[in-house]
Design a protein that fits this description.
By secondary structure, chain A is α+β, with helices and mostly antiparallel strands. Chain A is 35% helix and 21% strand.
């Protein structure tokens, strides 16, 4: 720290936020700005123009990640990287992602108008396709940057209309030339502010959370195969009803967290039957399972128990199943150095805060494999997210912005 | 009866069946001949041509039902009506419907070549849109004929592409001029042969079933409304998971028949969640319930219990629901006179047979409100139906055809 506490320009941050929130705004106060859509292009254009107005040197990489670099006293030093994402969920909220980018922008604007010289360069970033709604996987831009995914493979991923990421980048003129990778000097630290997307801070009446890490996660898909039969003349005992087995298993899977740990969550989010006809006994049922915990052993046990519940339910109903592992993320612990900088900033700005672990995935978790990463959360009222009703009190946004600006200054100061 | 037992021409029936089964055949031995499709037109054209070759007088009514009339000694007498439907389920079986029409055709061919003179006229019919896959409701042509539905309203029903029944009839040139109603003299009796679509006859090794009636039926749709939340950061206790409540209720609903009666069946055939996303707690779940029993009081109790299970499950999970009644058919008892004619024919032909009640709906149930109706079933191997694998042993088809021809002759003989 410089010994001096930075404030932010509340009015400017608010105006900027409202203005960006108008790009792809929905009628109900939300945001519909899918990755690489025309709305995303408009938000990116505005972002690039704001970076240039600040005198930053802008570069766009091959995945469309947009960076703006502010020089430090040591022009060759590894930069501090700050930012989040400008894309949204379909009919999602206006805080998710965008708030973190604009708080980072306000931080650099404040540095500029106060003439703050940092020891290290500071780079601001808008990561491409964090949401994963249009193109899978989520956290795509940061994942390629961190080496978790191959750039060519990601550029070839297509949306439902068969448009690839590469084509979509070209259409909106964000198919950049820079390689998608950390600079040669490395990255000194990454810091991201985001809405919590859960109820903890709101329940406890706190403004800021210092994030210690991200839950481990498993995504599974179960396909239960029975036999389709006419709903009328087929007696109950003669059925091999895929839905009956699936609902039995799902009921038990949803009760797993009670038996695993206090922090575990289990969600069945997708659920489909075939032929999906009112008078036909379902021959196939397909559903997904999302298991998360701070403790990776709990996630492993959750997978085992899911299989055991499917075994039992399918045995009872005389049907078969297959269980596919779609995704598996080990828990991430953020760097002590970044958490400490966040703690100092929280203390210096007098913000009511706590530590917590993120149940949701974030770009920062990829960055932890490249550098020391960390996050600050601000509350989500009632935990609502990925919906137009997503809301954060403005005072909490400001408290988070103050802590973020000070933590960034701290990290950019050589020690 | 004439005292003499009719046989059918097994070779001709088989050739005719194979030939019709080629119109809209699927690669896996099934039939894809949706109502009023080009394949349905081709089957109808073939049917009309076969009726004309027999010298029958053909008429097409405003719903596209196709009739062929063979005169009786008393030209003014109320005719005996026989037949079924030529449309199929999507990728359905080749026996469902078609077998009944072609057995009726073979019956009239046999009458013709033997010079059989019946006291009453005999009319053969192909009912429009029995399946209800493309246009709802099912049993449409027979329903209008019986006065259960309004012709204009049915002609205005549309498929998924917005094409109305009236337009579709025009496109295949089956928008007939005749009013869709019974003749002025009335109908003396209606007889239909159909595959059982359940396992009873196959399980018991019998060739023919004389159908005593059709189950009562209720179709319900439940919409469970909770709240969509992020699957990661939303603790289990803070969720209002629509799917969790729906699966609890569905599990209980599927167990209802055990508590209601030996013959009752309960099926959840459609099941959907929204937003149907792997990392989002479902905010809405929609499912249908199909309840059937011979005893209408059991169906009523099933509806009550469905509501009670939804009350309990939704209360437990803190969500709301609405339950809509989509359809309700009272049980139908077929006429003693037609059942007796069927029994005599079964006895005369020495076919191993039993009596049973149909769990599936059939055109004959509408006809029971117009005249004395009845049905003969032949087995469905393993009860399979509405699938390409639907199968009936050819010997059983023949046994059914013999019984059908003799029962038709019996009914067409004045007594």
């Amino acid at each position: 720290m410089t010994g001096q506490t930075l404030d932010v320009d509340a009015e400017r941050l608010r105006e900027t936020f409202e203005s960006y929130a108008g790009i792809g705004a929905t009628g109900d106060g939300g945001l519909h700005r899918l990755a690489l859509s025309e709305a995303d292009r408009a938000a990116r254009d505005r972002f690039v123009s704001d970076l240039r107005a600040l005198g930053l040197s802008v570069r766009v990489d091959e995945l469309g990640n947009v960076f703006g670099r502010r020089a430090g006293r040591d022009a060759e030093a590894a930069p501090v990287l700050i930012g989040s994402h400008l894309d949204s969920q379909p009919y999602g909220g206006r805080y998710d992602g965008q708030l973190g980018v604009l708080v980072a922008l306000e931080t650099l604007r404040r540095f500029e108008e106060l003439g703050v010289e940092t020891d290290r360069p500071v780079e601001i970033v808008d990561w491409t396709n964090e949401e994963g709604s249009r193109f899978q996987p989520s956290m795509m831009g940061s994942g390629v940057y961190a080496g978790a995914h191959d750039a060519e493979a990601m550029l070839a991923r297509t949306d439902r209309d068969g448009v690839s990421v590469g084509e979509a980048l070209g259409r909106i003129d964000y198919d950049g030339d820079a390689p998608c990778e950390p600079p040669e000097a490395g990255v000194h630290a990454f810091l991201e502010l985001h809405v919590e997307q859960g109820p903890t801070l709101d329940d406890r009446g706190l403004s800021v959370g210092v994030v210690d890490g991200v839950y481990g996660l498993a995504w599974l898909r179960a396909v239960v195969e029975g036999e389709a039969d006419h709903a009328g003349p087929t007696p109950m005992h003669a059925r091999r009803d895929a839905l009956a087995a699936a609902t039995d298993a799902v009921g038990e899977i949803q009760r797993l967290p009670n038996r695993l740990s206090a922090d575990a969550v289990a969600t069945v989010g997708e659920f489909r039957v075939e032929p999906d006809s009112i008078n036909v006994v379902p021959g196939r049922a397909t559903f997904t399972v999302d298991l998360r915990s701070e403790d990776d052993g709990v996630v492993d046990r959750g997978i085992e128990r899911t299989r055991a519940e499917l075994d039992a339910a399918c045995e009872r109903h005389g049907v078969e199943y297959e269980l596919e592992r779609l995704s598996r993320h080990r828990p991430v612990a953020f760097a002590a150095r970044v958490r400490a900088a966040a703690d100092r900033a929280v203390d210096a700005t007098g913000v009511p805060a706590t530590h917590l672990v993120s149940g949701a995935g974030h770009d920062a978790q990829h960055l932890q494999s490249v550098t020391d990463a960390g996050m600050l959360f601000v509350p989500s009222v009632d935990g609502r997210t990925h919906a137009e009703a997503e809301f954060t009190e403005w005072e909490d946004c400001l408290a988070g912005a103050r802590a973020f600006a000070n933590a960034t200054l701290d990290l950019a100061t050589a020690d």
